[in-house]
Amino acid sequence: MKHKEYYTNKSYYGQAFTTKISHATIHEQELKERFGLELVSQYYHTKLLLLDMVDIDHSGGLSTNTITYYIKLGTRILGKLYIMQQYLNDNNVTILYNYRERITDGKYHHQNNVKQNIRRSKSTKHQYFRRKLSLSTKMTKKYKEK
Question: Which pTM was predicted?
Answer without folding.
Answer: 0.70
